[in-house]
Each structure stands twice: as C-alpha cells, then as structure tokens.
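User: I'm putting together a teaching handout on how multi-component assemblies are represented. Below are the sequence lines for each component of a complex, exactly as they appear in our records. Could you produce the 3D structure of the whole assembly as structure tokens, so the students can see both representations side by side? Please keep the chain order the same as the input.
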Amino acid sequence: MANSVKESQEPKSYYQGGLHLLQKELMTEYFDQMTRAAEGAGPPAVYLLISGNPVELIRAFDLLPVFPEINALQIAVKHQSLPFIQKAEEVGYSTDNCAYVKADVGLWYQGGQAPMAKVPKPDLLLTNYVGCNVYLHWWEHLRDLSHAPIFDIDIPFIRTADGEPREEDITYVVRQLEELIPVFENISGKKFDPDKLAQVMEYSKETGELWAQIKRMTVNRPSPFDAYFDAVTMMGPLYTLRGTIEGRDFFREVLKMVEETRRQGQGPLPEEKFRLVVEGPPPWPNLRIFRDMFARWGAVFVASSYSTVGGLWEFGFSHDPSDPLRSVAMHMLKWNLTNRNFLQRYQQLKSYVDEWGADGLVIHSVKSCRLFSAGQGDMREYFARQVGVPTLLVESDLEDPRYFSKAQMRTRIDAFMESLEHHKLVGSGR
Amino acid sequence: MATTTSGIQEAENLSEVVNGLRNLFEDPDFQAVAEIKKLSGKPVVGHFPVYSPTELIYAAGIHPIGVVGAGNQIEIAHADSRFQSFVCSVIKSTLELGFTDRLQNFEGMLFHSICDPARNLASVFKRNFPDQWIEYIHFPQNMLTEGSLDYLESEYRRILMRLEELSGKKVPNEDVNEAIGKYNRARRLMRDLYQFRREHPDILTTKELYTLVRAGHILSIDDHIELLEKAKILVNKKTPHSRDHIKVILVGSFCEQPPLDLIFSMEEAGMDVLDDDFLLGRRWFTEDVPENGDGIRNLAESYRDRSVMAAVKHDSRRQKGEELVERVRKFEADAVIVSVAKFCEPGLFDYALYRKALIEAGIPHLFVEFEEKMWLFDKIQTEIETFVESLLLD
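Assistant: Of course. Below is the structure of the complete assembly, with chains in the same order as your input.
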C-alpha cells in the first residue's frame, strides 16, 4: 500500500490560510516588540517559561514577557537551530542536555540575534517551575550568563492520590505570588494596580474560554483543524498575548473561522480517514515533513497533550478576575499538563482516545524533554496492552535536527498506518 | 549488632572491615535486607536518591534502605522497554529490581523531585506495583521565602502520616528528635572521616570511605554508627605511605553511583580525593539538625539552609561555580574531577557551570562520564592517568 501511493499525488497538508496569516501578523508584531526592547526602546523584559505560565502578572505591569522556549522553537522551525546548539556544546553542554537550553545558550553567545528577532537581555528571570526540572537549570544558567535578578516560583507537583493540589500547596504558591508583586513594581517602576490586573484577568478568562471551545471542536467528524499542527500555531498568541485585547480578539476570530470550517464539513485534509491522538512535543526542525507523513494517509490529529502544556482550559479551567492570585496559582498547580503526574497524563490521553473517538495513539518521544519522554515505553505498554489502542512510538527531537531520521520515521509511520488500515478493513479497530 | 555486620567489632584492620561490607550494597538480591527484616520485624521502605528524610522513616518504626539501582550486578531485560535509551541507567536498573521481584522485602519506595526521569519513575512504579506503598516528595526550590519552610514542614508531615499508615505506629515529636539525634551522630562521624581523609588520603582511601558511607544505605542507623566509630579507631592504626598523587575534588556523582572498582581504579590512577559528593556522603547537611523543638520543622529548615549542595537543588542565594572554586582554594586542591553519570541531565548541566567557573579561575579540571553498569574501566583510568601526569610534570 505504502509503495502504491505516488509521492507526487500525495495529499499535502496545508496551513489553513486565515488562521495562520492572522497568527503570523500578531507574532511578527510581538517579535518586533522584542527587537525594540533589545534596542532599548521597549518595556523591561521578563523571561518566563511556557508551562502553566503566569503571564497575566507580567501584563498587569506592562512588562514584556519573553519565552526562551518560543525563541528556541522558532529558530528550529526556521532550520537554523544546529549552529546555536553546537555553540553551546563548544562551551561544555552535553549532547545529552535539552537542546532548547542549548539553542538558547548559543543564542546568548551570539548576542541574542535570532532569525525572527533580536532578543532583549532579561531584566528579571522568573522561573515558573511548573513540572519541568530543566527549567530550574536553564534559568540558573541564564543567571550565570546575564547576572540578571532571579525569582523562583516553586510549584509543588501533583503527588497525592486524589490528583489535587493540597491546600498547603495553594497557600505556598499564593504567598510567593504576593512576594513577586513588589519585585515587579521595582522592575517596572509602576505601582501595583488591582483594577488593571482584574482587566487582564478578564481578557485571559475570555481567551481561555474561547480556546477551550476551539479545542473541543475537534470532536467533530471531520475535525475542522488539526489539534497538533494547527494547535501549535495558536499556542504562540495563547502565551505571548494572553491577557491582552489583541490576544482575545485573535481567539474570537479563530473561533469564527473554525466554526465556519466545521459548518461546511471541512477539515485540514481533503478527506479524514484516520483520527489520531498524539503525545509529546513536535519535531520543530522537521515539522512539515512530519505532518506530511501523516497527511498522506489522511490521518488527522484530533487531540494532543502538547497543546495543554500551557494550560488545561478544555477540561474546565478559567481564570477568575475576582480572585486573581489564587486563580493564577491554581493554573500553575493544577490546570496544566506538566505539573500533573505521569499517570494523570495517561488518563488525559485516554479521555482523548475515548471521547474524541480516535483510531490510534502516536507517541512522539523527544530526547530533549525528559519530562515528556522518560517512561513513555510504559505509556505505550499501558495503551497497547491494557487499553487496547493501536499505539506507535517514534523518536526524534524538538530542537536538534540530528535526531530526525527521515527514512526510518517514514517506515515506522507507514507500517503503523498500514496496520490501522487493516484494522479498519477487518473491523477489529476501535 | 546484626549478623550482617558481625565480625566488625573483632576486626583488626580497616581493609578487613571494608572487604566484609561491599557485599551489603553490591548484592542485587538484598539478602542483608531480608536478614535485617527478620531480626527487627520492621517493615522496609526503599529510598531513591537524593536528600531523603530517613529520620522520618526510622522514627515511624520502618527500616530505611537506600536503593540506588543495581550497579553492574544485573542485566536489564525488561525496564529498557519502559525507559528509553537516553535515560540514565539507575532509573532502569531500579525498575528492573522491581520487575525481577528483588524488592519483595520492601513494603514501599520513596522518590523525590530530583529530576524528570526520577519523578516519572515514581508513577511507573505506582502503575506496575499497585500493592506497594509509593510516595513522592516535592522539595521546595524557592529558598528565599519563609513560605518554603511552612510548605516543606507540611510535606514532611504528610509523608510521616503516610509512613504511620504503613507501620501502624503513631510518631510523637520526641521520636522524630531521637531519630534526628542518631542521624546527626552518624553524619558527624562521616564528616569526621571525610576530614580525616582530607588530611590523610593515603591512609583512608576513597574506596574505603565510600564503602563505610554506602554501608549506611543498608545497615540500621545504630549499626552504622557502631561501624563508623570502629572505623575511626582503625584508621588511626594504619600507617601512612607517600605517593605521587594529585589532590582533587570530585563532583557530579550524587545520584547514580560508579562501581566500587571504578572508584578504586580512579584513585589508583593517581588522585587523592580531598572531597567528593558520592551519595552526598550521606551527609545531606553541612552541620547538625537541631535536636530540640519541633523536629519536622527543624528538618525542613535544615534542607533549606544547611544542605550539602547537589545539582538537584537550586538555591538562588548561592553560586555553584563560585562555591566550587572556593572549595578548591580552601582545601588546596590541584584540580577538579567532574564525574557524571551518563545521561544524568542535572549533573551534565552543572558541568557547564563548573567548567566556566574553573576556566575563569585557572583551575584544571577533567570531565569523565561513567555508568553504573560498566565493567571495563581502562578508558576512564587512562584519562585520569594522562591528566595526572600532565599536572605532575607541569
């Protein structure tokens, strides 16, 4: 079957026009702000991390949020990550260290000049330690390089049987956020304005609710967009512009577009033959190639765990303007993927498989991010043996192009899709 | 003293003691644990590295056993399908111990927030061994707020309550303080022995010191204290012999451990180790935990303010690179050996910090990567020999 499909006739994925154009416009403006800040004509820059990010507090002081993860992935998408990674390896970073960190360190040594922007130096390093242990190392290294002030927000991991944060955890996080406010006042030179924060929270609340509605649209057949490859496009504005009017308007617009696509019974591919769930971050250096490997089989991702790293709005979270600090604390503690334990992730994926009606699960295991990957063999065992869902595990990386083997990747994906097709034919699928 | 260590009191010299101990921790079947369990009648909880509050386990009437994988003693046949090739060995060998029924004498396992694979391992244990008591401690990483003390105190109370459920023993504060007193005593003895080796690395070798410390991962605290006291007496009976070695500080081996024979080979290659962080020397803290007052609060405070630093703790009040340089100067070491387990991301990250600081300070260093499952040590030995020669002939 695989060989009978001629490459020239293969359906190629396409990035749904409006959504991607709109996103590009907004992100270009965001990157221009970064460049202006780097040139001394912008607000102070606060570095923070994607997982459960508390960007609302930064927006409430008109500070510029800078996400080194976004910078790193942008560099990778533009196929320029390797020289940055190699620069970091020259100064002692191991081939086995997270390549996001290495690309960022390499960027530092290149004076912050990235393909899409010049990255400003940090005025504050805000470590939102939400699950990922590498975050702590990364910011420790940025502190060593930049000598910028650092503030660690320690978020206790979900570790009890009920899967909830403890009341003591919440008190602890709220207290740290209270202690962060004077730090922001100091950096921004602005007095804390509770009304301004409430307004930011209102925008965030609506943005999160819109995003949740958009994410839920993929339960439709066909799915109106790809919950992996198109969702990552929306994640940029979700983090960089959440809490702003521009961010909210973007999601209002996207919801309209997605609704229209659904009304017309369309999807990202000419025909949706397979519905898949995907776990793990994408291979940014080979995003299009990877997407096409599934597109040629008519496979659409209807849900992805990666798109919930920043927040789990689709499972009921919404920012609460009436109790902002507690609400931000709950976002960081409970309502994101990375602060939940590995078995909670199994359950999230299982609910995607069941409720979104998926034919199979693809685990993209990336070497860089052990938060995601360490133990995914056990996850495969759980889904393939215990749940009984066809499951494919493939390995590459989110930043380092050296770990993507095109031929091998394609062979494995083709073999998996052939077996799914067989399942469908003989009716043994789910 | 339990039968596992009988004969130590009669021993005439240190090598006799040390040779009798290595089987305690190199035995993947944990026969000593079965024996200790039979004699004490206590349940057993294994603790994965690092910073485990063993005092609480002990106070709850449970025997704490340090579980640091299986070294080079078993073949990994099952766990490597659960954890990928780029995950360090200690994660896989610890899981393999479970899969091969070698943890049957353990009622539970305790993990900590030291790195992403260790955290996911706690979940994988929970799923694959549903009848076992599995717990996970999240250590705070914001050292500037008083809130982290309140938090860690509550976390320790939660763990103690879970331990009480396991042993059926209600633990009053006096028992926590008594445990702290005992562990303080052992830590003092270990600090003394570390000090002794710093002054006489030819008399107390690193292989011997390591064995004495590592035995504490298996022995009861009382037996360990007795062992360390005996060792203190015996080291003074050994005669010094001078050798052409360089003086080094070794860092990076706080979690996964090199095989004992590799430690020996490294030493023989020409280095006198003035300080190391193998298992953090089981020292955990730089000074005693207060023995009066609220024991749990004191343990929390000690973690925050008195920890021996490791790559898995982040304290924005401190600079790891600078501290290492200061330590080199204080101990008058010639060089630093950064010895990191393969795929150990925290250790590898710290290496980049150390490298920068050491180069800036003009201190020579050598980076070596090891794996617990190694059998051949020639490569590392040659690297160290060459490094030592280059310094001696400089």
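A couple of points students might notice: Strands of chain A lie at 45-47, 64-66, 124-129, 150-154, 274-279, 299-304, 360-366, 391-396. Chain A touches chain B through 55 residues (CB under 8 Å).
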